[in-house]
Design a protein that fits this description.
The structure is a homodimer.
Chain A: E1 5-6, E2 9-10, H1 14-33, E3 38-39, H2 41-48, H3 52-59, E4 72-73, H4 74-85, E5 91-96, H5 100-107, E6 116-122, E7 132-133, E8 136-139, H6 144-150, E9 155-158, H7 162-174, E10 179-182, E11 195-198, H8 202-219
Parallel strand pairs in A: 5-6, 5-9, 6-8, 9-10, 10-11
Antiparallel strand pairs in A: 1-2, 3-4, 7-8
Helix pairs in contact in A: 1-4, 2-3
Chain A binds a DNA duplex through residues 1-2, 13-16, 40-42, 51-54, 56-57, 59-60, 65-72.
DNA sequence: TCATATTCGTGAAAAATATCACGTTATTCT
DNA sequence: AGAATAACGTGATATTTTTCACGAATATGA
């Protein structure tokens, strides 16, 4: 294990970091839905289908401590995770592509829980430009530079068809975008210093199919 | 390393399996867009931001061999991956929730590339029932049992608001659904034998925010 | 044809991650 | 208050995954 503490910022194992996101989501939900104060590692583990040991080990990288027989104090734990993920620091994002997917994103209400805020949605279809999506008016691509500058946007969600994705990504990078949140299935070719997060949903489906097939095999 | 070969079915390391999905997506794209026959591990690695050694190691679990100085023969490689993922065996899926997200899924054309097929979309809003989404008419939830039986549906995509997700999931499981493809942010509580694939997009955004913050730190 | 330059294939080593085991601590019950 | 019990914290161990290093194979060009 090779952890570094640099300028007070704890570094987590990558795998732990991934699970911290899950804990954050779970705890955020519990806080909204239930009026409970404490949660056991066992309960978290069951909800996320992992082991309690894993949960406790992950939390050992945090400051928050649990109490034997009682569990972790949810407000404290969630507070630390919020801090860690910077949910208080707002990051502005733009959406390119106002199809169903782009509209779904534009209407999503959960961004504020993770410190994000949609500031505009774009499309190049003259029919769509000017229409409203929730609180946003669909803007033409030529407005991209202005909006990116005005709102200091670093993150852009790409919701255009596969054929157009690379072109749009290049455009965005040209305008100074630092991270591409890619909802198209196209595997983008971009400079190394540009962050790419692919949300290609078909991967999840392949996983499901494989598990179903595996299960069918075992049962026979 | 502890691999098993059981009834002719090779078991892969889990991490390798995840990357095989990426190779499959990349090669599928290349076959459609370009007219090339061979690809180097180096090229694959660059596109996916991993190392060529990793690619070659992963492929070492497959039958397909590459040729030094030439690379891997794309049709053979893709053929083996298609076989592995069962893209020829069609799995029927239903969509519950005809909001923007459900509609986006219903209109997605890439399912056939991975051996899946949407057969119906459902909603409980009387306003929406009967409307068309692409080629599908939105059906009421009471039709669920009939459709599930008729099309032998094992996979259901949940595209309803967070508040309704658990209830819908329970309903689906009651009707015999085996795998839940969860597009809501709700962390579902379901029997262990039900496969759950969460597509909660906010996790990806947390990752982006973290990388941006990390980068800003390094640069200072 | 032979030398050279690439690129593949894959054991071996290193690194990362998960599991185990058990001491510690907080609560509950008598 | 003291004993019993349940759950946390974490070093040690086991497993998984990645990286390294180098021999083998293939194309290219003199």
């Amino acid at each position: 294990m090779k952890l570094e503490e640099r300028k007070g910022i704890l570094k987590f194992p990558k795998a732990t970091f991934e699970r911290l996101k899950l804990y954050h989501a779970l705890l955020t939900q519990i806080r909204l839905e239930e009026k409970r104060e404490y949660i056991l590692s066992e309960e978290i583990a069951e909800a996320l289908r992992i082991t309690p040991e894993q949960v406790r080990k992950d939390f050992s990288f945090l400051e928050t401590n649990g109490k034997p027989k009682v569990g972790y104090y949810i407000p404290e734990l969630l507070g630390e995770l919020d801090e860690l993920f910077g949910t208080k620091e707002r990051e502005n994002i733009i959406i390119v592509g106002a199809g169903h997917l782009g509209k779904a994103l534009a209407n999503y209400k959960g961004f504020k829980d993770i410190g994000a805020q949609v500031v505009a949605i774009f499309d190049n279809d003259p029919e769509k430009i000017g229409q409203m999506v929730g609180e946003f008016m669909i803007l033409p691509l030529k407005d991209l530079p202005r909006v990116i500058r005005r709102f200091k946007v670093k993150i852009a969600a790409i919701c255009v068809p596969e054929k157009a994705a690379q072109e749009v990504a290049d455009l965005l990078v040209g305008y100074g975008i630092k991270a591409i949140w890619n909802f198209s299935t196209k595997i983008l070719d971009l400079p190394d210093d540009i962050i790419i997060q692919n949300e290609d949903i078909t991967r999840g489906l392949l996983g499901i199919k494989h598990m179903l097939a595996e299960r069918a095999n075992i049962e026979r």
